[in-house]
Give the backbone structure.
Amino acid sequence: MAIRVKLREILEQRGVSQRELARLTGLRASTVNHLCSDKVDRVYLETLELICKTLNISIEELIEID
């Protein structure tokens, strides 16, 4: 089972930079950058929840499970 975080695509669609998301959420810029990469190997559920609340999206919109 592969899980893909679609954060990069969502930010591009909304015209929000990684830096801006980091500022809005209080997450470190390096954390946001990691989640926008193709190499996401682990993530805290609290982090995903914070991103979803900030961007007003559902978890299903943020992650894709194959």
The first strand starts at residue 3 and ends at 5.
